């Protein structure tokens, strides 16, 4: 754009130049919201907004509102709250993503239907102002178009991105991480090097020319080097009863090899805070015709010789183990370490269903890890309510020991309906949407996919609610790993590293003809 100025005085020239700057919205510092249609399959589409704070000060909240064509609906969404009035949709931040530093970005997404070229937002406002040229606002015809949706692949200390070429005149592309430029290229691919092992990074690709930059397209990937520890990339966990009930009683050696990890339930409390003890239950011993501690220890070695791992689960529904002080944390680490040495356990499972102190349990587990070394398996079995928020004690514990944590296999049963990561509605237990939408909370809030597994009952009798056919467990794993074969809820991205599944319990699986393990275990081998 050219201006011809006839200046009668320096003051007039300065005034004209100032008016030119003020009239250019591209140069005004503001909060913008860029829309990307990340997928469209005709009957529906996935949309994403990226909010960027281009001001010089942090903002504490954001609200994006826009109109969709008549007949277009939003079926699910994530990382925002939604209110609707007719065809006017308003998305606002949730508690944890409202604060945006200068130059930083946050995003939210949604599933709309139907799809097609007409399914695009219009009249977009962010915090009451125009969205900055995206999602229905006026656009600068001289700017390049948004790059095609990038793909990102993690390598050894690196991440490689590739994307579709932008429309219009393109000088090159910049790859951002936050506000920092990590690469500038003229082609449609770039490799970011110098990263660490098992690091997750999100990048935004923008095309640019003399007029400025396009809207950004985002991709996330994790570098190689994530340690899977002594367990397979995808594995099946089962709990073994150290008590007798209506399920089939089994000697530990009778556990089939479909189970990669066996959690012995349970280590029990004493009158000393934090202390854990274990021994073969007398009732179980009698039911099995006399099963001794010595035979149990031999069976632990038998499973380990088959390539299986055996850990001690602490707590359970009726367990009263409490670690609520530094002294109790030391007692827990000391007593569990002694049981590991005595019985040959490969690790410990935290299944405290009657309260947990994240600070002191983290202290105990780090102490135990220091005593046993990096091969220690640490798992957790929280209830669904325990993983609804990063402020919950179980979630705080998982994040605080992320560097030594093996896996969290949340119990997706006995909970009733619960909110998923889209915070749209309560999903009913016993459905594929319940499993995927709730697992998404952990996957989008700090845990790596290899640290997340799905815990389900083995069949009738094993739980009071949330029992699903093993085929539904397989469907949920496929949905999370590939974003295909989903139900009504589709996760915002694929998590190919999703770790696997857990069942309560091996004994109930035996009571139901081994249907769970014989269905789910082979499916794990099909995951990417």
TrEMBL record:
| UniProt EC number | 3.2.1.14
Q: List every stretch annotated Disordered.
A: 137-158
**Domain GH18, which positions?**
234-527
Tell me the organism.
Answer: Planomonospora alba
Residues annotated as domain CBM2:
24-134
Database matches in SMART domains: CBD_II, FN3, Glyco_18
Tell me where the signal peptide lies. Answer: 1-28
InterPro entries assigned to the protein according to its UniProt record, in alphabetical order: CBD2, CBM2/CBM3_carb-bd_dom_sf, CBM2_carb-bd_dom_sf, Chitinase_II/V-like_cat, FN3_dom, FN3_sf, GH, Glyco_hydro18_cat
Q: Which PANTHER family match?
A: ENDOCHITINASE
Q: Which domain of life is it from?
A: Bacteria
The entry's keywords: Carbohydrate metabolism, Glycosidase, Hydrolase, Polysaccharide degradation, Signal
**Protein's UniProt name:** chitinase
Report the residue ranges that make up the Fibronectin type-III domain in this protein.
143-231
Protein family: Belongs to the glycosyl hydrolase 18 family. Chitinase class II subfamily.
């Amino acid at each position: 754009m050219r201006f011809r100025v006839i200046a009668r005085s320096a003051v007039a020239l300065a005034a004209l130049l100032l008016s030119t700057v003020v009239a250019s919205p591209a140069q005004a510092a503001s909060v913008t919201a860029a829309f990307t249609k990340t997928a469209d399959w005709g009957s529906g589409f996935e949309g994403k907004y990226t909010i960027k704070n281009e001001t010089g000060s942090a903002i504490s909240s954001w609200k994006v509102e826009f109109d969709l064509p008549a007949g277009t609906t939003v079926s699910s969404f994530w990382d925002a709250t939604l209110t609707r009035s007719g065809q006017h949709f308003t998305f606002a931040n949730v508690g944890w993503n409202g604060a945006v530093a200068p130059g930083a970005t946050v995003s939210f997404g949604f599933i709309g239907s139907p799809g097609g070229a007409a399914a695009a937002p219009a009249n977009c406002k962010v915090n009451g102002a125009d969205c900055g040229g995206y999602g229905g606002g006026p656009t600068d015809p001289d700017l390049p178009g948004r790059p095609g949706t990038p793909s990102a692949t993690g390598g050894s200390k690196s991440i490689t991105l590739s994307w579709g070429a932008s429309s219009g005149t393109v000088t090159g592309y910049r790859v951002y991480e936050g506000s920092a430029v990590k690469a500038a290229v003229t082609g449609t691919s770039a490799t970011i090097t110098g990263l660490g092992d098992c690091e997750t990074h999100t990048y935004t690709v923008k095309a640019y020319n003399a007029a400025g930059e396009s809207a950004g397209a985002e991709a996330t990937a994790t570098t190689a080097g994530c340690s899977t520890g002594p367990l397979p990339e995808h594995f099946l966990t089962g709990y073994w009863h150290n008590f007798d009930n209506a399920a089939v009683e089994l000697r530990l050696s009778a556990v089939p090899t479909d189970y990669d990890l066996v959690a012995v339930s349970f280590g029990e409390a004493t009158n000393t805070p934090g202390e854990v003890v274990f021994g073969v239950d007398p009732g179980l011993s009698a039911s099995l015709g006399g099963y001794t501690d010595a035979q149990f220890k031999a069976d632990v070695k038998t499973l380990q010789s088959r390539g299986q791992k055996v850990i001690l689960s602490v707590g359970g529904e009726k367990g009263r183990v409490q670690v609520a002080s530094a002294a109790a944390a030391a007692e827990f680490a000391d007593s569990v370490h002694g049981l590991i040495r005595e019985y040959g356990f490969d690790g410990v499972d935290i299944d405290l269903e009657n309260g947990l102190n994240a600070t002191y349990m983290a202290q105990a587990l780090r102490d135990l890890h220091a005593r046993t070394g990096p091969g220690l398996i640490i798992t957790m079995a929280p209830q669904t309510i325990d993983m609804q928020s990063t402020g919950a004690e179980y979630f705080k514990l998982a994040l605080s020991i992320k560097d030594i944590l093996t896996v969290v296999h949340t119990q997706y049963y006995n909970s009733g309906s619960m909110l998923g990561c889209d915070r749209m509605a309560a999903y009913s237990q016993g459905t594929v949407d319940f499993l995927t939408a709730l697992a998404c909370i952990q996957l989008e809030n700090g845990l790596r996919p290899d640290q997340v597994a799905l815990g389900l009952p083995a069949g009738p009798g094993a739980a009071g609610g949330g029992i699903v056919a093993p085929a539904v467990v397989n469907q949920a794993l496929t949905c999370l790993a590939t974003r295909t074969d989903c139900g009504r809820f589709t996760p915002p991205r694929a998590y190919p590293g999703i770790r696997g599944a857990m069942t309560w319990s091996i004994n109930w699986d035996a009571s139901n003809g081994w249907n769970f393990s014989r269905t789910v275990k082979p499916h794990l081998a099909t995951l990417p």
